[in-house]
């Protein structure tokens, strides 16, 4: 009887996506969707600012002014690309929730710690695999 209880307990602990309850997954999904909405609004705003940057605006500027404007434009483009990348990561995390693989390391296939995913819900690697990747 004790063996059955242990097996049942193990099955219960590993149920869901790496031990996440439906409520927890729903909360994570909501958080990710909220971030996607915020990031898409930020991308739209940034793209609008980038598009409104008229080439004739720099007429009469000295080299320092032209350089500063170029720097600001490149910075805005980089931030927009970063926001788009975060949207893609969030969408990928939602797809993993839907597939039932959320919280499982893509490298070693072991569970990713809940604490890590609560801090960084887009994580695809456990701490050990991420450290190994960063050392390369």
Short key terms for the protein model shown above:
136 residues; mainly alpha; 0% strand; disordered N terminus
Tell me what you see in this structure.
The chain has helices at residues 2-13, 22-52, 63-99, 114-119, 127-135. It is elongated and about 65 Å long. It is mainly α. Residues 1-16 have low confidence and may be disordered.
Strand content: under 5%
| SS field, number of helical segments | 5
State the secondary-structure class.
mainly alpha
Largest sheet: none
Which radius of gyration do the C-alpha atoms yield? 22 Å
Secondary-structure element pattern, one letter each: HHHHH
Look at the structure and give the mean pLDDT.
Answer: 83
Care to give the gist of this entry?
By secondary structure, the protein is mostly helical. It has helices at 2-13, 22-52, 63-99, 114-119, 127-135.
What is the element layout, followed by pairings?
Elements: H1 2-13, H2 22-52, H3 63-99, H4 114-119, H5 127-135
Helix pairs in contact: 2-3
